[in-house]
Amino acid sequence: MELKIVVDKSQVLLKRKELKAEVTFAGATPSNVDVAKLVAEKFKADPELVVIKRILVRFGSNIADVIAYVYETKEAKAVEPQKRVKTEEAPKAAPAKKK
């Protein structure tokens, strides 16, 4: 995989960098974790401080457009909304029969 930064914008107030990048890959679309590792290597940051907002594959090609944020600290990353975790729903009880 190869990462090419298209736009690198610094948000001083939020203590983060907003990135638009292109990822060239072979095979299946790379996961958020794989792209986060690439971005972290490029900016010498901790992969936990990288948030991948979107990976959008160009139709019929092996290039994806990526939008990512690289935060300076874990405290700065606290402004990022948390992902919802799916939990198993308890089976619903059958309605009681009336006599």
Strand content: 35-45%
Tell me the number of strands: 4
Summarize the biggest pleated sheet. 4 strands, antiparallel
CATH superfamily descriptor of one domain: RRM (RNA recognition motif) domain
Total helical segments: 2
Secondary-structure content class: alpha+beta
- Average of the residue pLDDT scores: 88
CATH architectural label of one domain: 2-Layer Sandwich
Radius of gyration from CA coordinates:
19 Å
Quick recap:
By secondary structure, the protein is of the alpha+beta class.
Q: SSE layout and pairings?
A:
Blueprint (H helix, E strand, L loop, with lengths): L1 E10 L4 E9 L7 H12 L6 E8 L5 E9 L2 H4 L22
Antiparallel strand pairs: 1-2, 2-4, 3-4
Describe it.
This protein is an alpha+beta fold and 99 residues long. It has a domain at 2-63: Alpha-Beta Plaits (2-Layer Sandwich), CATH 3.30.70.330. It is built from two helices and four strands. The protein has helices at residues 32-43, 74-77, and strands spanning 2-11, 16-24, 50-57, 63-71. It has a four-stranded antiparallel beta sheet with strand order 1-2-4-3. The longest helix is centred in the middle third of the chain and has 12 residues, at 32-43. The chain is flat, with a radius of gyration of 19 Å. The protein starts with a strand and ends in a 22-residue tail after the last helix. The model has no long low-confidence stretch (mean pLDDT 88).
